[in-house]
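QA checklist item 7 of 12: single-chain prediction sanity check.
[x] sequence parsed
[x] length recorded as 124
[x] structure emitted
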Amino acid sequence: MIRRIASFLLIVLCPLTAYVLADSTIAGKWNCLSTDEKGMEVAWTLIITDDGGKLSGSIIIGQTGDKIDILEPVLNGNNLTFKIQINPEETVELTGRITGSSIDGTFKGKASGTGTFKGSRQAE
């Protein structure tokens, strides 16, 4: 009886565990849209790589195609924080919460002001 229960749990839980682990990673491409306090919207792509727990990446601005490296990326549970340096005087801090294949968050910068962003994971 115990073997049957153990076998059943292995059959059910192994695929579920693999799904949860695969879905919990931040690595990949995310289609994002930010909206500042004045209502200005900017589309961008967030690209995150995870090399053994060390995160890195960049954003690509949709309208211009400009690529900006992200700085100090940290994933703490479902919360992602990072910075981007727009120019020598302006660094913007972003904080987002990941829920499944979506991310919602806020940003703030000295000249950029404050705002929100949302995004969804690109299909691989």
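[x] summary fact logged: The longest helix spans residues 2-24.
[ ] second reviewer sign-off
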